[in-house]
Amino acid sequence: MKKSSQGSKLLEGAFILSAAAILTKLIGTLQKIPLQNMGGDAAFGIYNTVYPLYNMLATVAMLGLPAAISKFVAEASAGRNAAEGRKVLRISALTTLLSGLLLACAVYAGAPLLAKWIGNSHVTAALRSSAWALAVVPLMAALRGYFQGLHNMVPTAVSQVVEQTVRVGVMIALLLYLTREGADAASIAAGALLGSAAGGAAGLLVVLLYLRRHRQGREPDAEQQPGTAAEEAAALELPATLPAAGGRSAPGSRLRRLLGYSLPVMLGLLATPLIGLVDVFTVPRLLASGQSDAAAMVQFGIYNRGLPLVQLVTMLATSLSVVFIPALADANYRGDRLLIEKRCSLSLRWFWLLGLAASVGLAVLAVPVNTALYGDAAGSGAMAWLAFTAAGGTVSIISAALLQGLGIVRAPALHLLAAALLKAALNLLLIPQQGIAGAAIASVAANGAAAALNVLLLRRRGYLRLRFADAAVRPAALLAGLAAAAAAVSYGASAAAEAAGLGGSRTAALAQSVLGVLAGCAAFAVGAVALRLLREEELRQLPGFGPRLADKLKRLRLFP
Prior knowledge:
Elements: H1 3-62, H2 65-78, H3 82-118, H4 124-134, H5 137-149, H6 154-180, H7 185-217, H8 228-236, H9 251-287, H10 293-303, H11 307-334, H12 337-364, H13 366-374, H14 380-387, H15 389-405, H16 410-434, H17 436-460, H18 468-499, H19 506-530, H20 536-540, H21 546-555
Helix pairs in contact: 1-3, 1-4, 1-5, 1-6, 1-7, 1-9, 1-10, 1-11, 2-3, 2-5, 2-9, 2-11, 3-4, 3-5, 3-9, 4-7, 5-7, 6-7, 9-10, 9-16, 9-17, 10-17, 11-12, 11-15, 12-14, 12-15, 12-18, 13-19, 14-17, 15-16, 15-17, 16-17, 18-19
């Protein structure tokens, strides 16, 4: 495959995954808002207590193998050794299936003990509901990793959309039933978590169907076509096959190679839910000082109101990160250092800008957004602080993926572990003084620290060139314009609503939020072009609308 073809396929995969990420996260946001609206802040608090723990346990069950599968399958594909890629898939799928089932049984049986460690018995039923999802999600993730290694992002994108759609559909159905029956907050939260199991099962079915189609339609193996693989590999200056470690190809040897790469990746991935787990094991306890456990859980639910919106941004980064791992592994395998530097610089610059823009926009519009989504403005100050985790979290996720694609897998894990320890220390220091706002500030500091450590390592290894103007000066001017536009339009909408007698209503708050977001997006787009943060050649690389949009902006003389 030629480099231009690979680049086109990479861009197409990035576009597919970004579109799927936006859609699935929008669906995921719809999942949490009805839960809070109908179940109340207490049920919302219980859900957000258990969900980070579920995320961590699911990450453990996956053993980091989806990233390892993606990397090794990409290398096998580059070396024209399709059989090796399928062997990697088989052993990884079996391993993730067994680990998921074992951990699901352990969580279901040990739910009362886990609830005791958390310090709240109301989470027991929700923990047991999450165990069902653990039985299916790890295997689904492993199969996605295989297709990502082949640079085929369609199965991942489709399964993500199906998973989230089924998840929300089941959750809302149970939510309507349980609230109508007068169920308590613990039962409502447990029902919501059952949606994760249903969605996981649906997503697994989708990728299994794609795998069946892939097996039926694949061409004969390269090793079954004498001369073809050798000729193509020679043209690409690659070996015809990829040797196993020590020259062995036994399943045990292959599993050791996979785990040698995947376990450090797993430790790195654990740090993201670990930061949430720090909140689970510290925030309710610290808030309970001077008030009841039930009241503390309500406050914890209010604290988590901003998370669905922040996750719209970080989920996009997480979905796109799977593109960079095989892409950089392939570039590193070929020794194309210039391509590595270009991809690292471009991806970090743009995700830094997008993360900052999302953070500033949500902080400026925190009060109307909070009122529109949740019915009141409680915790808007904490939401404004929590918004800035989008910037650090986005850069942390993408930079970790870049390092992993380059084979540097232990450092991101250590950086995220250090960030989690920082989060715990700041929670203990700030929450007694500032309540949930202190917890939000601690989250901003922790995510920022992880991002900074990853970026500095990329620069120290020579994979990244940073320019102060691109990283700080021009983004500051861009964000000032975005904030001013969003605030001005939101204020104008509020004044109009007051004049119409709708002041303080959720309808007025929704209008403020939507108009403010649109104004901020417009200011970001115009400012990015005017400040030369968006270049014509980069815009033309976007599939579909990119060239047409570049032509229109050029006719407006926005490009030099």
